[in-house]
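note to self — DONT lose this again. spent like an hour looking for the file last time. sequence + predicted structure for the chain T wanted, 222 res
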Amino acid sequence: MCTRFYADIDKELKPFIDEARQASFAQQMMISLSRPLIMSGEIRPTDIAAVIAPAKNGRKAVFPMQWGFSINGLKNPIVNARIESAAGKPAFRDSWYRRRCVIPASWYYEWQHFTMPDGRTRTGDKYAIQPEGSAVTWLAGLYRFEETDGFRYPVFVVLTREPSGAVSGIHDRMPVILPQSAVDGWIAPDGSPDEIAKSAVTDLVPEKAQTGSAGPGYSGMS
């Protein structure tokens, strides 16, 4: 899963954050959703983040988007979508084919999960995880538009996959992380997400961060 990521405004991500803050609807989004335009530091579900997606003219741009799809019948938003099944799920099908995005991050956080003898899952150490040798973690995502009190705004989810390498000892899911060379193709509406996903980065480096808990209330979707 991916329920936290970090964006360091002092380094490679500053241009993305600055562009998102300058979007024409950024201030209205902050007012209508009662959410600050932080976009840096530790980003949590329902926060507004800087997200790469195509503009109306087809060119690559950066927009403020809120993290999480609202689903009827669920109290809390869905923040992850499984890449293996997203194309077949009503909540994600249209976005899979027409509205793909990339969330630039410094790294993402995961909590080590243990299965206890009674079958319950417990969480352990918190890890900061990023691709080896890369200053930016390019998280593959999907986006769509939702509406609150007549205001239409974009929201996103992070795609997840089975873990690889060292991450498999921490959690049974990990985000789909793209190489920088695949970012433009991923967001292109006429791109082939199945083919591009094959280039996902699997060589990741986990480092222990502060001990903590992922906390309840936010879900992935199988």
